[in-house]
């Protein structure tokens, strides 16, 4: 494999505007409110007045060792050599849901036609390799970044971020706000 691509999610900049979700839904022809390719998660910790609220926009982790690819019995999922992105081929999918069961991040979703769908970095839209996915292009606060994992790691390091952990080696770094909202 040439270079592994991934995401850096800067939760210190995310305002939970849902632009990334809406852009993904519109560009991919998904119904509004469909939890398919990209989702903004909201985590609240603590008790008043020391509450920490975190927003994290996540999609497929494009893992270095994707469990979904390993368990697909018909090869409908594959990992691209040129950028490490995990992509699906709906024409090969038999709807067995093995990928959903194998994914530790609960990423693969099923369309009404009973075939799997997941983030492919907007490759299915014909995204050129020198352009960012639509979620990244749409983010008004520049909380989402996409590119070679080494570049994402450098951006993440500057924000005190950490790589998501797991046996599959997810290709996502996340930074979070560290102070409670009342102290910001």
What are the defining features of this structure?
single chain; 184 residues; four-stranded mixed beta sheet; two-stranded antiparallel sheet; 24% strand; globular; alpha+beta
* Number of helices, where a helix is a run of at least 4 consecutive DSSP H or I residues: 5
Task: Report the order of strands and helices.
Answer: EHEEHEEHEEHEHEE
**What structural category do the secondary elements indicate?**
alpha+beta
Largest sheet: 4 strands, mixed
Identify the strand order in the major beta sheet. Answer: 8-1-10-9
| Number of β-strand runs | 10
Silhouette: globular
Describe the oligomeric state of these chains in a short phrase: single chain
How much β-strand is present in the residues?
15-25%
Would you kindly provide a brief summary of this structure?
The chain contains 5 helices and 10 strands, in the order βαββαββαββαβαββ. It has helices at residues 19-27, 67-71, 98-102, 134-138, 149-158; strands at residues 5-10, 39-47, 50-58, 77-79, 86-88, 109-110, 116-117, 144-148, 162-163, 172-175.
């Amino acid at each position: 494999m040439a270079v592994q691509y991934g995401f850096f999610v800067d939760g210190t900049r995310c305002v939970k505007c849902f632009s990334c979700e809406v852009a993904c839904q519109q560009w991919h022809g998904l119904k509004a409110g469909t939890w398919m390719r990209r989702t903004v998660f909201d985590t609240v910790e603590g008790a008043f007045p020391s509450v920490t609220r975190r927003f994290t926009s996540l999609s497929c982790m494009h893992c270095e060792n994707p469990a979904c690819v390993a368990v697909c019995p018909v090869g409908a999922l594959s990992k691209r050599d040129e950028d490490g992105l995990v992509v699906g081929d709906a024409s090969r999918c038999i709807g067995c849901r093995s990928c959903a069961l194998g994914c530790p991040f609960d990423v693969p979703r099923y369309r009404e036609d009973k075939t799997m769908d997941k983030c492919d970095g907007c490759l299915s839209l014909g995204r050129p390799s020198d352009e960012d996915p639509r979620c990244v292009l749409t983010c008004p606060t520049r909380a989402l970044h996409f590119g070679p994992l080494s570049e994402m790691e450098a951006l993440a390091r500057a924000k005190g971020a950490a790589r998501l952990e797991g046996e599959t080696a997810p290709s996502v770094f996340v930074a979070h706000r560290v102070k409670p909202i009342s102290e910001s």
